[in-house]
Predict the structure.
Amino acid sequence: MNAALELQGVHKSFDGNPALVDAFFSAAWGEVHALLGENGAGKSSLMNMVCGLYAPDTGSIKIDGRAVTVDGPLAARGLGVGMVHQHFKLVATMSVAENILLGHGKGGWRRSLRSVRGEIAGIGARIGFTIDPDARIDTLSVSEQQRVEIIKAMIGGAKILILDEPTAVLTDDESAGLLTQLRLFAQSGACIVLITHKLREVFSHADRVTVMRGGQTVDAGRKPSDFTPEKLSALMVGEARVYQIGEHLPPGQVRLELKQLSARRDNGAVALDRLNLQLRGGQVYGLAGVGGNGQAELAEVLMGIRAPKSGVLELEGGPVPPASSGRLRRHGVAHVPAERYLYGLAGDLTVMENFVITHLKDGRFGAWGWTDRRAFERETDAAIAAHNIQGARAATRARLLSGGNAQKLVLARELSGEPGVLVAHSPTRGLDVRACAAVHRALREASRAGTAVLLISEDLDEVLSVADRIGVINRGRIVREYDAPADRQEIGRFMVGHA
Amino acid sequence: MEFATFWLAATPLFAVPLIAAALGLILNERAGVLNLGCEGIMLCSALAATAAYLETGQSVALGLVVAIIAGAVVALGFGIFVVILRTNQVVTGITVVFLGSGLTGLIGVPWTNVALGGLQPIHIPGLTGIPVIGRFLFGQDPVVYVVLALVGVVSYALYRTRIGLKLRAVGENPQAADADGVNVEAYRLFAVMAGGALIGLAGGYLALASAKIFVFDMTQGRGWIAVALVIFARWMPWRALLGGLLFGGIEAVIPRIKAEGLPIPQYFLEMAPYAVTLFVLIYAAIRLRAGQDAPKALGVPYVRQDRR
Amino acid sequence: MTRRSWLRSTRLALEVRQRIPPLHRAAFILGALIVGLAICVAILVGRGVGLASIYEEFIAFTFFKASGVSTVIVQSTPLVLAGLSASLAFRVNYWNIGIEGQLFMGVIGATLVAIFDVGPESIRLVLMLVAAIVLGAAWALPPALLKVRLNVSEVISTLLFSYIAFYFVLNQVYGPWQDPKDKFPHSEQYDAIERLPPIGWEQVHYGIVVALAAVAVVWWLVERSRFGIQSRFVGTSPRMALAIGLPVGAIVASSAVLSGGMAGAAGFVIATATEFRLTPAMAAGYGFSGIVIAFLAGNRPFATLIVACLMGGLYVAGESMKVFYSLPDALVGLIQAIVVLSVTASEFFVRYRLRLAHYRGA
């Protein structure tokens, strides 16, 4: 039998930076094939070629043994390929049916609308999803939106279904349900490609696994049972993750406290539900949780760009009216935001400008009317050296830094004022192992110097290895707190809310 | 009584260019293209209509058709810049205004300041004579009724056809539309051209029906008022019709007030449309929170491989 | 491989360049300028202007003859101020399209002081300048507040304010301020003491000092003050600026108001050095010229000075075209528009790379 999907010799570079180097992949009909790799390993880029969004520089794509040219999403659909992207490709202001009509349907508007409604119900019944075809996308939960994406792919006649990190946004229950359904779909003869970085899913749900690292395929097409978790993890990461946990110091005084803090999402849904939190000097507080349980809103409240609905924020024992980024910063709250180029760095400006911008009033950099350019350069150069920011000079545009070095620049700036509190939200997302280690070291060192560090992360291993104290956030509340070391299994259960 | 009759009867004459231009802009903006060049496109098509009318034996229909074509062609040029070359939509739009003004000033001399017979209203015995509303409803020129129908057509096309669906998707979330196989550039260009055709109709009507003359820079900010009208209408065709009638009514009342000899200084009267537009914008911002209804990708060029 | 299959197996892909070498950028912009200017020359030739006279009017006279150079300097002075005005607003992504209205209000301020003989004669001109700046800034304030507080699009509101200012000017010159001597729709001429004195070379007047001082002040503001670096963040990364606690609203609003004040100063120079009165036509074109100058100069103060002088040359040459070839005023705007369009188009080739992607499918 022909392979369902086969890619060979795929090269792709973006403006001279290679993203894929001679990557290859092969998946069979009737199987769930895991494509495993870290962030930035090239998994999504490779699969974006199959669904027609990127064109490979060189390389071939075969579907069911036939060489094909996928010169666009329509061509991909014609070949029976459907992809559920990590960031859903849905129009938020339109209904489910309209979103599906966007790519499908024939004939007049009314008729196609009716037939699409029928198909939604039909496929829903077949795979156990129910979805209201007339609901607007932005009124649906994330898992419901994902169902819409899957139904959309299946209505398009997908025989090869590619899912990019589908469980990242789901609870454990929802994930298990989804993966079971995918397995059923595979057993009916389809080919499922599951892009993931979670070993657990590979072992529990995949028939075979292909591992990518640094844009290359490093292991292809073996059964998960051929590996130990350590072996697979080593293949994926390249070098073993080494964290120096260091000793846990006795915690210092409370620097920041949230009392009964509530906040809403943009769409009005409850994001933080009377949350209580104490951050102490000399301590890294790791906040673990599945994404979408209020972490982003908590970070925004602490950044001062989201107004809480109720509750109190106290700094150094005194209440501070929040929702003013300037006031929080003046009180010594620093940030490493999750979205680096949205909130952390101005990509079009220089490393120097990005470094000095939050310190202009320190006294180091001259007066209001006459800033000291020499001091700008001197301090920036010193920070570049101290944090080992590679490829950076004072006049380099921040956009040109690699992910890890950009993050080091953010850390250098935020730690430069010796802040009382540092909020780091997913600070290692998308970074390679070495950069991760540097970030973790910087967080530890800051806390040893007396800063209260809040590490918000969806990576439980990161929290376990860096934090002195660990909290679990679930549906906008901190449901459990531990002093490190804590039991991984138990934390995992509280994260998904069964215990 | 007489005041109201004349005022109402004259309102569509001023409202139609605003409504047609706003409809065109709605098509543009729903697809994510901010067309600030509206004023310039109107000017070009006003001149095109006048030239065609004068050079071809005074055919109003031909003049309007030429205006529509001219609008679509100028808009296509604008579209090539903002959609294909991904230039800044604000800078390009403003530049098109001055391009239109410069171009019509340079080549329009032979057709400028020539009084035109232009478009005449219809007369339906029995109906047109109804007091107050008779002329308003039944004594307008044919284009008024055509534009009224166009409001319905655009509304239907946007919300009840697959082309409209794709057009709106391209303006709301081009990434999603692209992944669904919608050609984002093609739909945006199409929307810009179709919108340009409507803006062209507005310009042609302005010259051949409203003013019955072409003068340099005759649009007098009407293109910009149409841009504001779209915000007030929250990107919905039917509301644009209502807003257009409101604005047209205000413009139409000015000559009536002058004719009545009311003691309001002339130039303060002429300020009124702009001041009212301003108030309407403020009202829309406070009460309607119109910003929320804006297409999410409005003014943002789409590049598929935009890594970082 | 046949042609057809080659076509099928390749696809034009758009790629964002991460690194843009300065020379590369300069080459593309220069190329675009040449193309744009070539189109303009073609239009002029099409209207019956010979190549020799284009050279004579646009280059020889304006840049190589003393009388020409001085005319260009005089013409450039308000253009420098208009360009600075636009650049101050554009730096923070505030599209001030209402420069002409603010310029008019500046003239009204100066004229108020002149008509009512405010203050001692020795500082009358200074008072006129201050009044012009204050009124220009005041006229820019409401749209700025509407933008910052209510998110009302400044593109439309500044323009509407411009129209309102224009009709107010008409009201004044046809009404209370109409010149009693000739009954024309303009205000009475300023007294000699209310005019900018000549510096003593050709027709050049002290407006040049105002313009150069403005360049220096803006350079200080954007390059050396804290405000300058903060506003750079507001302009390029507004959400980051908010997140790190910069007073974004205040920075945007004050930039807009400074822009209005600068436009008012431009009005002052035109009124006190060229027109000596308020006229309804005196602001025409300065708004777009300011936008064009700021755009081509990349909002940099010294570049603004240079580009404004080139635009001054264009104005002077356009004036001769009007006189000798009866080409309309609109010509200058048309040439500016063509140049801007060619430069914006070149940005595409600077920012993106077009690549043919090959499939080795078949």
Remarks:
- Chain B has a mean pLDDT of 90.
- Residues 2-293 of chain B form a domain with the ABC transporter involved in vitamin B12 uptake, BtuC fold (CATH 1.10.3470).
- Residues 2-30 of chain B form the longest helix (29 residues).
- Chain B touches chain C through 48 residues (CB under 8 Å).
